[in-house]
Amino acid sequence: ISRVTNQAATAERSAREKEDAYKRDQESTKRKDQLNNDLTKLTELDKELDKQIMPVRTHLMQKESDRDRMRDANAQEDGMLSNQLKDFERDMDKLKEVNDKIDQYVRSNKDNEIHEVDQKLLRNAEDISSGEGKLTEMKPELENLKKQVEDGDRQKKTIQDNLELFKLEKTLNQLQEEIKNLQDEVAAMGGDDAREKHQVAVTNIRQQQSKIERYNGRMQGLTEQKRNLRRKLNEPEYKGVDERQRTKMIEHETTNIVVTDLDKYYDALDKALLRYHGMKINDINKIIRELWTLTYKGEDITNIEIQSGQDSGARANRSYNYRIVMSKGSTQMDMRGRCSAGQRVLASIVIRLALAETFCLNCGVVALDEPTTNLDFENKRGLAIALGQIIASRAAQSNFQLVVITHDEDFVSMMKQELSSQTGFNMPERYYQVSREEGHDGRFYSKINAVDWDDL
């Protein structure tokens, strides 16, 4: 009755609120229509005013353009007059300078100085004319002297040529005597055979000299290359290159050894992980088998377990495809799509409890939210028995806590009966009931009450 009364009061308040909202909407609609009418009138008035003000704007724009044009014309005329005034002032200054120079010339009495300069120019012209006459008279004598000098040069050259001829004749005679002596020596040495041997020897000498020159050129190139290499070795880029090469070789070999060791470590770790994975899967399946046998009361599924299929590929990209398999006798098949909703919920709870038992030994908090969804009475009882045994086995653990959130009071009663039958731990004193109540301000609040187990 209280809940129905609260619903009626809520519905009445909602109706009043909707009625007030409807009235406000009606008033807002009327106000909106009135404002739209006012806006239409103002728009029409604005259009009429725009039509009336348009000729005035046009006339005003014409007047403004005339004013700007007159201002530009006046500014140009003012600039032209200013330039003419400046030109006139410059001409007046130049005229004053010329007038000052004329006055200065008149006061300086320069006529006498000009007359003296003219007299000096006349005397210089007379001296130049007399000098030109003397030069004309001396030209024949200069010609004779030039001829004598040229004849002396020819005689000197003739004498020098004769001396050179005498020297050449003397040298020729000496060479003829040497040739004769050499011919006599050649005849004494064997004649034509010696000449041929001499020619062969000369040819060999020339060949050896050409080889020596080639080798010398090659040696010079190698020497220059050696000098360049030594210069490069003294540069900072190549200085101490032997020590650096030795260091890098040590680093390279050390890195290869480290890589080899890491490969061995990786292989060992990979095998250990595979072995650990298999061991943990076996442990999880063992706990799942025990919990499933304890909780599931049906006869169509004997056991469920987790199976993993390893994908082929590189070690770094290895992954596992986990699937839940249910078995009946020796027959196995995937559980996905072949089980009921209750079986799926129970399998989910059992698998999570097994994972917690295996991997969360130091973390003793287990929370279950509505664990009995879609479970029948027998499976609820089996779940209560399994949870009771887990609580009894974990009672000695200081940080263990089981949190169960449920609307099923039958399941809570089953948990109480199962815990009462267990020994070796203290029975929980109470459980907590959460309800929803309406406050004095009309709002609903959650309320938590601690209820003794005996009141259940």
- Please tell me the overall pLDDT: 78
Which spans have pLDDT < 50 for at least 5 consecutive residues?
none
> What is the N-to-C order of secondary-structure elements (H for helix, E for strand)?
HHHHEEEHEHEHEE
Number of helices: 7
SS-derived structural category: mainly alpha
Round the Cα radius of gyration to an integer and report it. 66 Å
Span of the ends, CA to CA: 24 Å
Q: What oligomeric assembly is this protein in?
A: single chain
Strand content: 5-15%
> What's the total count of β strands?
7
- What order do the strands of the largest sheet run in, or round the barrel if closed? 1-2-3
How helical, in percent, are the residues? Answer: over 70%
Task: Give the overall form.
Answer: flat
Largest sheet properties:
3 strands, antiparallel
Describe this structure in words.
The protein has 456 residues and is mainly alpha-helical. Helix content is 73%, strand content 11%. β4, α6 and β5 form a beta-alpha-beta unit. α4 crosses α5 and α6 crosses α7. The mean pLDDT is 78.
Characteristics:
456 residues; mainly alpha; three-stranded antiparallel beta sheet; two-stranded parallel sheet
List the helices and strands and how they pair.
Blueprint: H1 2-108, H2 111-189, H3 192-233, H4 241-295, E1 303-310, E2 320-328, E3 331-334, H5 341-359, E4 365-369, H6 377-394, E5 401-405, H7 409-421, E6 430-438, E7 444-452
Parallel strand pairs: 4-5
Antiparallel strand pairs: 1-2, 2-3, 6-7
